[in-house]
Specification:
This protein is α/β, with parallel strands linked by helices. The chain folds into two domains: 9-263, TIM Barrel; 273-367, 2-Layer Sandwich (Sulfite Reductase Hemoprotein, domain 1), CATH 3.30.413. Helix content is 42%, strand content 19%. Helix 2 links the parallel strand 4 and strand 5. Helix 3 (86-95) runs parallel beside helix 4. The longest helix has 21 residues, at 156-176. The chain binds iron/sulfur cluster (SF4).
């Protein structure tokens, strides 16, 4: 992992982005914003799963009119996502949102963008200046459109160059307004291009960067596409706030973003980490089912204990190395380990409950300061007991 890239810092409702602040997770509601109850419910769901900031779309006046009430009830800062209508941005700012997302390319004239910038300055709120592959080409000026389309067909690099060029031209507006409370983003569908574009932006500008892959698809494929791009960038120290997006329930996006940051050591876990053997020909129980049950059962424990579910007593203890609590299952029975000690052997029907009980007991001891996580992991040699 490289050092995090040095950037400016902006404040979004008391949460810092950039300038060495912890990397934040964002998501976006899928409810019509004007439907206050369902929108607030989704914002709360995101926040409960670890989302730091939530964006809401405000395509109509009735959406911005709902913001006042939503802001009163939201447990995290809210970002208004504005396209085409600068009035929506002004209304959202007036309502008290904590950040605006704007694509100056789809706001009709410069004076309108200037007004939004002035209103944000007055309220002390930042603006994300974003370009997106899907809307990068000029729509009004035919000559510009032809040039830009030619750039895209020339080679793969053409899109990356065009995105950087557009951002540069948008940023000129902000710089002429002497406004530096800016977060940048450039979203592509292709993971390799997303890496290239964001590297180029990181080299050229010192504003914080919002990372994401656009139109990534359903989780089954979008997950790989998003993680491929984001993990490469984050490992290079690039990226200050992330959003993973799928064509699916948004809570999955937050969970995956959180797991990504935790896996890269960029966020501290606040809940159990589950590791499990990949299964092989030695397996004698339905381990996949057990792993799913353990995963669901551990929800609600708010201590980052490492729990391992292993499929045999031959390699299980060795492969569970580093775990605080583990079960090494054999035919009909499982051996439970807690911080390196074999504590009990239970029948298959009791494995789930026994593992859960030991996890809760250890979590309680950790919370009371009587045990330390990772201090004694499962390294015991395989037990000599005949599991059959
Ligand atoms: S723990 Fe046992 S069953 Fe699981 S992959 Fe390793 S050797 Fe195979």
């Amino acid at each position: 992992m490289r050092m995090r890239r040095a950037t400016r810092q902006v404040q979004v409702g008391g949460i810092a982005i950039g300038g060495g602040a912890p990397i934040t997770i964002q998501s976006m509601t899928s409810t019509p914003t004007r439907e206050i109850d369902s929108t607030v419910a989704q914002i709360r769901e995101f926040a409960a799963s670890g989302c730091d900031l939530v964006r809401v779309a405000v395509p109509t006046r009735s959406d911005t009119e709902a913001l006042g009430e939503i802001l009163k009830q939201a447990p995290v800062p809210i970002i208004a996502d504005v396209h085409f209508h600068y009035e929506r941005a002004l209304e959202a700012i007036e309502a008290g949102v904590h950040k605006i997302r704007l694509n100056p390319g789809n706001i009709a004239d410069r004076a309108q963008v200037d007004r939004v910038i002035a209103a944000c300055r007055e309220r002390g709120i930042p603006i994300r200046v974003g370009v997106n592959e899907g809307s990068i080409v000029e729509r009004v000026d035919k000559a510009v459109r032809a040039t830009e389309q030619a750039m895209l067909t020339e080679n793969r690099q053409g899109l990356a160059d065009l995105m950087v060029r557009k951002l540069e031209s948008f940023l000129r507006i902000f710089e002429e307004n002497d406004f530096a409370e800016v977060v940048l983003s450039a979203k592509c569908i292709d993971a390799v291009l997303a890496i290239e574009v964001n590297r180029a932006i990181a080299e050229r500008f010192d504003y914080p960067l919002h990372l994401g892959v656009t139109h990534a698809g359903p989780p089954e494929t979008g997950r790989i596409r998003s993680i491929a791009a984001l993990s490469a960038l984050l490992a290079e120290g690039i990226g200050d706030t992330v959003r993973i997006s799928y064509a699916a329930e948004s809570a999955e996006e937050v969970a995956d973003a959180k797991e990504l940051l935790c896996s890269l050591g960029l966020r501290q876990r606040d809940e159990p980490e589950l590791i499990a053997c990949p299964t092989c020909g030695r397996i004698e129980i339905d381990l996949v089912k057990l792993v799913g049950e353990v995963r669901r059962k551990l929800v609600g424990i708010n201590t980052p204990i490492k729990v391992a579910v292993m499929g045999c007593v031959v390699n299980g203890p060795g492969e569970a190395e580093g775990a605080d609590v583990a079960v090494c299952a054999g035919k009909g029975r499982g051996v439970i380990y807690v911080q390196g000690q074999q504590v009990r052997t239970v029948g298959e029907a009791d494995m789930l409950d026994a593992l859960y009980e030991e996890s809760v007991r250890l979590a309680d001891r950790v919370e009371r300061g009587e045990a330390q996580l990772g201090s004694a992991s499962v390294t015991s040699p395989p037990p000599q007991t005949n599991m059959r």
